[in-house]
Known about the structure:
Elements: H1 3-14, E1 19-23, H2 28-41, E2 45-49, H3 55-62, E3 69-73, H4 78-87, E4 91-93, H5 99-108, E5 112-113, E6 115-116, H6 119-128, E7 132-135, H7 143-150, E8 158-161, H8 167-174, E9 182-184, H9 190-194, H10 198-209
Parallel strand pairs: 1-2, 1-9, 2-3, 3-4, 4-5, 6-7, 7-8
Bound molecules: 3-phosphoglyceric acid.
Amino acid sequence: MTPAEQSLKAAEICRLAPVVPVLVIEDLAQARPLAEALVAGGLPALEVTLRTPCALDAIRAMAQVPGGVVGAGTLLTPADVKAAKAAGACFGVSPGATDRLIAACADEGLPLLPGGATASEIMALLDRGYTVQKFFPAEQSGGAAFLKSIGAPIPQVRFCPTGGISLKNAADYLSLPNILCIGGSWVAPKDALARRDWAQVTRLAAEAARLPRG
Ligand code: 3PG
């Protein structure tokens, strides 16, 4: 799968809703009800970060949820790409990009949303064919002001910014023409997960799903 094909698929996924929940799942039993709660609230695309021992099993469980489009985040190595694909991930997200990671996504046929955070990184990914990129860590790398500025010389790249985004600053990003969606963990707060308060997760998801896009 070429980078251009990967970006087409990534754009399709990013357009499903204004927000992609970024999920860190510590307890496998939470995976399915969490995905159901988020999908019920109107957020079908879900990023499960490969940061916990049960992350791959969580992807396996969540991939069964009707209406969900489950991806793997924090892809760092070709082995991560292989494992994510085998677990049923429909897409991958990485904080940055390496030649080996890009080659693995092409080989495995896993659409990648690769991370860039500087003009040169964004240009290098565009050179490879990636017109849809993650901007990470968004707030720490210049936030919405950076994305507005980079949209002038490089309008053909669209972004999903993540890192430090919440309801407070979501509109700053979503109003920009080069933003397809935003990612964030605020829709699945740790305390709600610990309480298994799925109604609260659905409320937060619904609020996020209603955010207007520019
Ligand atoms: C991450 O990699 O953890 C994501 O970018 C989410 O960041 P957030 O927790 O600040 O939303």
